[in-house]
Amino acid sequence: MQAVVLAGGLGTRLYPLTADTPKQMLPVVDRPMIEHVVAHLGGHGVTRVVLSLAFRPEAFIDAYPDGTCAGIPIHYSVEPEPLDTAGAVRFAAVDAGIAETFLVLNGDVLTDLDVSVMVDGHRTAGAMGTIALTEVDNPARYGVVDLVPDWEQGQPADQEFAGEPAREPVAGAAGLVRGFVEKPSPDAAPSRWVNAGTYVLEPSILDRIEVGRRVSIEREVFPSLVLEGSLRALCSASYWLDAGTPEAYLRAQFDLIDGTRAWMDPVSSTAVVAADAEVERSVLLPGASVAPGARVCDAVLMEGAVVEAGATVRDSVLGPGARVGERAVVTGLSLIGRAAVAPRDAKFNGVRLPDGQFDERFSGEG
Question: What is the biggest distance separating any 2 CA atoms in the chain, rounded to whole angstroms?
Answer without folding.
Answer: 69
